[in-house]
Each structure stands twice: as structure tokens, then as C-alpha cells.
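Journal club prep, notes for RB
We'll compare a predicted complex against what the paper describes. Inputs for the zinc ion case:
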Amino acid sequence: MKVKNCYICGAPDALHYFEGRSETISVKGMERRVDNLSGWECHVCGDGFWDPNNDSADRYGEAGDELVLAVRKTIGAEMKRIRRKLHLTQKEAVELLSGGGHNAFSRYERGELLAPKPLVLLMRLLDRHPHLLEDAKALAEGADMRGTFSYTVNNDTETLKAS
Ligand SMILES: [Zn+2]
């Protein structure tokens, strides 16, 4: 068995080599399994790293990246399905539900951005209870405080001078 002093925490003979390990990465309920990983792991501090002499780190990293992309696309497709079910255009969905830039919804649906958790939750609620869309429209009136304040320039003095 290959053993070294841990150069992370300094514990003697604590860093052990492992190989043939399988790990399952999960992101928001989706999973990817990566097999035949090897690396070093400290039995004292619990820290470790993949074997720098093979492709473990690359394969683990790629599986994670690919999984994040798959999750974004899956949630994006769900956002699109629910929006269409509610008969909303992307623009209407932004104005009513998400806020953000005018193309925010388009980016969520294409999987370029992961929709924020409150928005995903709101869309799933509307998917289950579509009649609540009317309530949402009523409640949205005045819910956004941005742009609430307005002011009027009082130019009485200017008017007096002019007359
Ligand atoms: Zn250690």
C-alpha cells in the first residue's frame, strides 16, 4: 500500500493511495457516476486529490460539467413547457414572473442560465395550479417597488418670470 506523510495537514503516514473507486456526482436530483478513479486521501484530515498521473481529475471534472449542463437544459425545458401551458410569451413571463432583462426567460429556457430557485418553484406551483395565474397577475400590480417614486419639477418661478 502506498502511504505518504500528508502534505495538507502534516500528519505522518496519513496520505493513502486509492484506486478503482466509483463516485456519483449529483446536482439538483440528477446524477452521473464516474468509475475507476484513483488518487490520494488523508485518513487524518480527510482532504485529498486525484492521481496527477492519470486522467481521474479530467474525467471527474468533465462529468461534473456535463451534469451541470444537463441540469440547466432539463430545467430550461421544464420552464418552457410550463410557460407555454400558461399561454405566456417570454416577454410576458419576464414582466409578470421573473424580472431581469428582456431576454432572461429565453436564456433560462435555452439552458444558458440556471433559473433562480424561487422562479423554478413559482413555475412548478403554476404548473400544478394554473388557475393561480390570474391571482399572480392581480398581485403583480404594484408588487415591484422599482419606479414607485415620481417627482414633479415645480417651475412656478420660471412661469412668473416669463409672464
Ligand atoms: Zn491530512
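Talking point for the session: The longest strand covers residues 15-27.
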